[in-house]
Amino acid sequence: MAYNLLKGKRGIIFGALDEKSMAWQIALKCHEEGATFTLSNAPIALRMGKINELASACGNATVIGADATSLTDLENVFSQSMEVLGGKIDFVLHSIGMSPNVRKKVPYDETNYDNFLKTIDISALSFHKVMQTAMKLDALNEWASVVGLSYIAAQRAFPGYNDMSDAKALLESIARTFGYQYGFKKKVRVNTISQSPTLTTAGSGVEGFNAFFHYAEKMSPLGNANAEECANYCLSLFSDLTRKVTMQNLFHDGGFSFTGVSESVIRDFDVQ
Length: 272
Known about the structure:
By secondary structure, this protein is α/β, with parallel strands linked by helices.
């Protein structure tokens, strides 16, 4: 059921690749709730993914290729989006993350530092660059909402998540620090959502992901949150219903983050 929560709002959604991605589901929900928006991803992702299918399903949304680590590309995204959509932007989704060390299965304690710097630039600094560009161009309306997607590995050690843990920790720090600046200067809200392990193309590339997924399912009182449920949560943050929520890392994980141990997990390890 649609509630027209985003009727009349304009947005930019970074990172939709295919129907498994959270950004894809978020875009569908935003369209359903009355928003208009542009879609952006790296040129290689545009070639490998299905973003044109998503654009068609979202009222022929404009697709703008961009390297989110490039300030020049980001300026083009914001300038073109304002032109296409007919005004300043009301919401931005940052769903961008990639680790060469994870892809190449380089152990964390043997990390390749050139790869590590790429992980930080793509997965965290791009969040800062998106907001810095938006502020420079005065591209966001007052009370606009910027949301980045995170994971609890920013706070806890998860074998296999590798340097993405460091990137997510930095992402959440940027949300707090930039959220402070943007809030005072423009009343813009900045938050991150710490989502359950989710069966996405990127997530499934993490070593041990299936074990993470099933363990979290057993630990979470409400079970893992899926991509569609994450999209619903994002809608609330993009809407006017959460105008005073900013600088927060918001757990959307069925209760996993605050559960010490569940009875189901105890039973698995209860050796008599």
